[in-house]
Amino acid sequence: MKDSEANLLRVAVPMGLMLLCVPMLAQNAAEAKSQSTAAKDAGATQLDRVVGIVNGDLILESDVDEERRFAVFQPYSEPTGSFSRDQAIQRLIDRTLILQQAREQPRKPITDTEVQANLADLRKDILACKQYKCETPEGWHQFLKDNGFTEEELLRHWRDRMETLQFIEDRFRMGIRISDQEVQDYYTKTLLPKYAARKATAPKLDSISDRIREILLQEQVSALLEDWLKALRASGDVRMVTADEVTR
């Protein structure tokens, strides 16, 4: 499949499911590095502030800063735009809810070897990595450093990401069936118009039917996940903490 065809299919993946695992547009490396340094300097003179509580688990200001910097490590993210503080807090709340539920259900733990293998593949898909030559150990370590992460911190974050995806996969994908007619309808009504708008030749349905089926499955998983998270928020003790509340 040509790059242009792959890109059209890639952008068709629903953003609901990506909410927890593929943050929005990342900060550039210089800005992220500057914020990381500032946060560390500030930490020497003031306590880390609580910004959210999720069933007793605390979300700290440093977690929010780390989450925003982590955005650059997501596959196909562009090093432009902004990922707001409030977006980061909401994502941390949702991910904390999922991990709380996941850890109540015994499952085979994700090993360091699996995390490292996943990260090795990731290096090929981070757009900002190209200028660093992340395929080399030196380039990868420099990329980590410029974005304010150590190897251990990234491993921890990526393990959480993999656990989140694993839980979503196990809980929501089972039982979902995508019919051939749904695949045909998506190809005809959604994909073909996109290719036509770009004056590009669309691939044959047979060559991308599996990919379309996956997109449709993810859309259904996204809808189920969103409803489930709303229910967890409503039934649990979940709230954001303002600066005024902390100083009272």
Automatic annotation (TrEMBL):
User: Which residues constitute the signal peptide according to the record?
Assistant: 1-26
Q: Which UniProt keywords apply?
A: Signal
Q: Which domain of life, per UniProt?
A: Bacteria
Query: What is the name of this protein?
Result: SurA-like protein
